[in-house]
Amino acid sequence: MERRRVLVAVSGGIAAYKVPELIRCLVRAGHTVRCVVTDAASHFVSPLVLQALCGSPVRSQLFDASEESEIDHVALADWADIVVLAPATANTLARLANGLADDLVSTTLLATRAPLLAAPAMNVNMWRHPATRENVGRLRDRGVRFIGPESGALACGWEGEGRMSEPETIAAEIELCLGPRSLTSTRVVVTAGGTREPIDSVRALTNRSSGKMGFAIAAEAARRGAETVLVAGPSALSTPQSVRRVDVETALEMREAVLAEMPTASVLVMAAAVADFRPSKPATTKIRKEDLGDSAPVIELVRNPDILAEICAQPRDGRIVVGFAAEDRDVLETARRKLARKGCDLLVANDVSRTDGGFDSDRNAVIFVRPGGEAEELPLLAKAEVAARLWDLIEKLRGSSA
Question: Could you say which of 25, 35, 54, 156 is catalytic?
Answer without folding.
Answer: 156
